[in-house]
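Subject: Sanity check before I submit

Could someone independently write out the structure tokens for this chain? I want to compare against mine line by line before I put it in a report. The sequence has 295 residues.
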Amino acid sequence: MIIPAQSLLATLTFVSLALAHGWIGKVTIGSKSYLGNPPALYSTNPPPSVIRQIADVPPVKDVCSADLTCGTQATPAALQAPAAPGDPISVEWHTLAGAGYWFHDVGPLMVYLASCAGVASCAELDSSETTAAEWFKIDEQGRDGNGIWAQDKLDAGAPASFVLPQTLKSGHYLLRHEIIALHTAQYVGGAEFYVGCVQLNVTGHEEGAPNAKAGELVRIPGAYTPTDSGILIDVYDLLPSDAYPFPGPPVAALVSHAESGGASTSTQGKIRTTLPGVQTTEKPTAAKTTTSVKG
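---
Independent answer below. Compare away.
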């Protein structure tokens, strides 16, 4: 049987793109690093980790899916990583393709925490319990003053970096790192969500906590809608001076301005979109930049 060239090309393209999707392969907390396991499809009987193992690499496309919480069919990890308020954290996303670097380069990075109160370890919380957890945002990184996305640094092999809040109350937490790839977000359902969770045991004597009355606590899924302005958006129509409207709650007030890696630079300028039915603001007169689209 002879396979048509177009069908073969489409198949190879699909496989290539699938291999370019990834998982949290390493997290460094303070000075100690922990390895994550490849998805269960490629790694059976993995060694103990602090990072929850996902089942496969394709993105989550449905903002109402339970997979949006910690990744596709994520399972509890066996271990917890010790951490302290103010610890620097870096997250490395790995893929099966090429050098193993992250593939996409447009879209935000966001970090959430959820308390695993009432249990001896976050490992005791299964997927149904994590979807019922209350999450608060501690970091969001979009574009810098030149219009370059933080995600683009992952594409070059750099980790995503942020800091645990200096006043974070001690306890067991799930740390959720999220990449939203927006290269096809011009259409409803086009945004791609890549999520991973790390189990922490935060020590110390601080008492900082999110403010539920200020709307800082959300459930995931439940925090986003398919038409949120930061999810349904044509990023290739943005000018460097345009602000990106982060989806979800605001960064919790317990996070200082210096600790939030992207909020200081990514929320400046005018928010603008050309999507039908959405109010627009006047376009600045700066020259428009172009970016290549990756699938």
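---
OP: Matches mine. For the report I'm noting this point. The mean pLDDT is 84.
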